[in-house]
From TrEMBL:
It comes from the Eukaryota. Keywords: Cytoplasm, GTP-binding, Nucleotide-binding. It comes from Gymnodraco acuticeps. GO terms for cellular component: cytoplasm. The lineage of its organism: Eukaryota, Metazoa, Chordata, Craniata, Vertebrata. One of its GO terms (molecular function) is GTP binding. Residues 1-52 are annotated as: Disordered. CDD domains: CDC_Septin. Belongs to the TRAFAC class TrmE-Era-EngA-EngB-Septin-like GTPase superfamily. Septin GTPase family. Its main location: cytoplasm. The keyword Nucleotide-binding applies. This is Neuronal-specific septin-3. It holds the Pfam family Septin. InterPro entries: G_SEPTIN_dom, P-loop_NTPase, Septin. It is found in: Cytoplasm.
Length: 412
């Protein structure tokens, strides 16, 4: 047996200078940069670990022993030990002097987003929007303008130029929209003219009942022993509440409705047909509406307590200051400056729907679809539906499977 030199008296090997061709790996390179103990000689630094020459040392062990245990073992020795320890056994991972891990080049975790995108595009999206307000405020027209399609009360015998019929009952119409390969099933829930009757006592109850019925349907599917892989989502994600452009104040009935339903659904107030007011009247009316909602303790979406971080708070504060959005809806096109635009024709000109100088329709569309659509769905599921679910199960004495033949309705 040969004499073994203790580690404390073993001479330290000279560290060769770093060759000029050693550098940081490119993001696409699967191999890490070689340390001085391996890549310091003979131009092998550019080779993968499997091509590194294996030197023979005292006890018949080699760097190849470490390589056989994985590239991570070799990198661990390079980062935390000297080349003289190649005869020892490798560790289970990469190490460095700071105790952190050293990534071995490109792994591919950034593809998780792409994987999620592909899977979500296959399943598609659901979005359910409800419109509530006085008759004649253009609720159905505005929804058609938002999605640039005849999605509200669509029927085979209804031509585009025909006047939209008056809503006499709560009716849900679904339509599949596709843009850039992304499919979304949009459901528009149209309601009868809110507050049109002579006696408007409890006129919000049919709307509240419809919202809770959709929660009940989802809950029944969720607690079934054998449930569907993907539960159909008919829950109302957003309620656009149309305010009459009186220029004075909100009706007591409007305040009562929003107070009763603000804890069941995401309410977004909008001032309909805002072209009937001047810019000054519109601004004063918006401030008055915000003040009345605040005094009544009504929180519309996006609620302050749901802001997740400072960035969300900053963005949502700007939106809250701009609400209620003063909008104009139209599904008719008119020629303006050699191009066709959506607008309303008056005796003195064309009110352009998508022109931010004319109304705030563009801000509403960007907020509703381009920036907060997914958040609307998450708040519906995590806040409003969970609140309903907790009350329902507590009243039912706990979690019990509900059979498909059970027609029991919610008593909430």
């Amino acid at each position: 047996m040969s004499d073994v030199v203790p580690p404390e008296v073993r001479p330290k090997p000279a560290v060769p200078a770093k060759p000029p061709n050693v550098g940081a790996p490119s993001p696409s390179s699967p191999f890490p940069p070689q340390g001085p103990g391996i890549g310091g000689g003979g131009g092998v630094s550019g080779l993968p670990p499997s091509a590194i020459p294996v030197p023979i040392v005292n006890h018949g062990h080699s760097v190849g022993h470490n390589i056989g245990h994985g590239v991570g073992h070799v990198a661990g020795h390079v980062g935390g030990h000297t080349a003289t320890h190649n005869g020892g056994h490798g560790h289970g991972g990469s190490h460095n002097s700071g105790g952190g891990s050293t990534l071995l080049g490109y792994i591919g975790i950034d593809t998780i987003i792409e994987q999620m995108r592909k899977k979500t595009m296959k399943t598609g999206f659901d979005f359910n929007i409800m419109v509530v307000g006085h008759s004649g405020l253009g609720k159905s027209t505005l929804v058609n303008t938002l999605f640039k399609s005849q999605v509200s009360r669509r029927s085979a015998g209804w031509a585009r130029d025909e006047k939209i019929p008056k809503t006499v009952e709560i009716k849900a119409v679904s339509h599949v929209l596709e843009e850039g390969g992304v499919k979304m099933k949009l459901t528009v829930v149209d309601t009868p003219g809110f507050g049109d009757q002579i006696n408007n006592d409890n006129c919000w109850e049919p709307i509240s009942k419809y919202i809770n019925e959709q929660y009940e349907k989802f809950l029944k599917e969720e607690v079934n022993i054998t449930r569907k892989k993907r539960i159909p989502d008919t829950r109302v994600h957003c309620c656009l509440f149309f305010i009459t452009p009186t220029g004075r104040s909100l009706r007591p009935l409007d305040l009562e409705f929003m107070k009763r339903l603000s804890h069941s659904v995401n309410i977004i107030p909008v001032i309909a047909k805002s072209d009937s007011m001047t810019i000054e009247e519109r601004q004063e009316f918006k401030q008055r509406v915000r003040k009345e909602l605040e005094m009544a303790g009504i929180e519309f979406y996006p609620q302050k307590e749901f802001d997740e971080d400072m960035e969300d708070k900053s963005d949502n504060d700007k939106i809250r200051e701009a609400m209620p959005f003063a909008v104009v809806g139209s599904d008719k096109e008119y020629p303006v400056n050699n191009k066709r635009v959506l607008g309303r024709k008056t005796a003195w000109g064309i009110v352009e729907v998508e022109n931010p100088n004319h109304c705030e329709f563009a801000q509403l569309r960007d907020f509703l679809i381009r920036s907060h659509l997914q958040d609307l769905k998450e708040v519906t599921h995590n806040i409003h539906y969970e609140t309903y679910r907790a009350k329902r199960l507590n009243a039912n004495g706990g979690l019990h499977p509900i059979s498909s033949n059970d027609t029991q309705e919610s008593n909430l």
